[in-house]
Amino acid sequence: MNVIRIPAKVGRYVRISSTATTAQYLKCAIDPCLNGATCIADLCFCAPGWTDVHCGTDNYTICVHISNKDVDECASNPCRNGGTCSQTINQYSCACPIGFTGTNCETNIDECASNPCMNNATCLNEVAHFACVCLEGFNGTLCEHGENVAVMFDIVTLMNAIQILVCTEVHAWRELECSRVRVCKDMQAERAKQYVNLNRHIDIDECASSPCGAENTCLDGINSYTCLCRAGYTGSCCEIDINECVSSPCQNNGTCVNLVGSFQCNCGPGFIGTLCQIDVNECSSQPCVNGGVCIDGINRYNCTCPLGFEGTNCEFDINECLSMPCLNGGTCGDEINRYKCTCRTGFNGTRCEENIDNCVGIQCQNGGTCEDGVNSFRCICPPGFTGDRCQTDIDECLLSPCQHGGTCHNTAGSYVCNCPTDLTGKNCDLCI
């Protein structure tokens, strides 16, 4: 089987399995991709804004894992034995119940590893605790109690302390194991004799002085004791505070503070939670206004503003009139993502850039020519005519142009002189 790796988005790879050759894979015989997607090796790389393996249908077995979204690593329930899963970016952590450890809480802690059972008892490891199977003649949680009998006593005064020889029955009277133990202080020998009785059991309680501390459990033994420490402490007398920060439980650069039997995470900006595992969503307060889209970051957010708005929260309406787009004295009115020009009389257009042709529909008479102005027009009249439309014929005879007694007759746009018999010319100013 050939395995082809093709570089994909976000620094990952796309694996394509098939019996086809590399050359056959790299060629898309039929492009199944839609919406502007790119086809490589019959795999669709979608354009921004599109998803779905399609952008077409793949006829091969394709395993694609390309995503910019954070995968919920806790979705598969990786923590075993009742562990609590905390999901973070590209990883998870398991908080294990008492008695279990390991990345996935898969390991049952062997409580028998410390050999807690005494007097050659057998230790049985169980979930979060152990049980001791005692030899005959012993009892107690740790098989710490034997049937002690004072078969003989040897009272010795030593530095105001009394010692006696105490023997422990082993295997039901068949064997005795003896040791000297200190039973009382500041006691006179005669009073000690009264205390020791050949017919009663003597069990010296080494836990009476509370060597393990008030909050821990002391198990009395034969000339010994064992401390069962509360959570967060260790040592023969539970005197050592376990530093829970050694395992670096705080995530996302949180600072761990070791406490008595516990720890506390001081989270950096943008994170909360017991382990600083939760990224605060700064977009939850909806800071972006005027239709802005909020994009959450680490201890920050960014607003993508719609056209016409700007500012950290898209709170400012952009004034499109600042560029003075209106011409020819037009008045600009700012609107959302646009402007509107109110034009002076005689102009129109989006920016008042067009001078209205006032000659449209105007007919100058008698051969006059219309000349457009600003919200006006003017008829340029030919000689002999006047008026706003050149509609009036000028009476040139009013100026008495005919000389030497010639008679003036007004005509359209001109005049005619009737001259005496011995004169001629336009104005009767020439002799014949």
UniProtKB/TrEMBL annotation:
Q: Which Pfam families match?
A: EGF (PF00008), EGF_CA (PF07645), hEGF (PF12661)
Where in the chain are disulfide-linked cysteines found?
A: C96-C105, C134-C143, C229-C238, C267-C276, C305-C314, C343-C352, C381-C390, C419-C428
| Domain EGF-like stretches | 70-106, 108-144, 203-239, 241-277, 279-315, 317-353, 355-391, 393-429
Keyword Thylakoid attributed? no
Q: Which CDD domains match?
A: EGF_CA
Signal sequence region:
none
What keywords would UniProt list here? Disulfide bond, EGF-like domain, Glycoprotein, Repeat
* Superkingdom, taxonomy of origin: Eukaryota
* Annotated PANTHER family: CYTOCHROME C OXIDASE POLYPEPTIDE VIC-2, NEUROGENIC LOCUS NOTCH HOMOLOG PROTEIN 1-RELATED
What protein name is recorded for this chain?
FBP1-like protein
* Origin organism lineage: Eukaryota, Metazoa, Spiralia, Lophotrochozoa, Mollusca
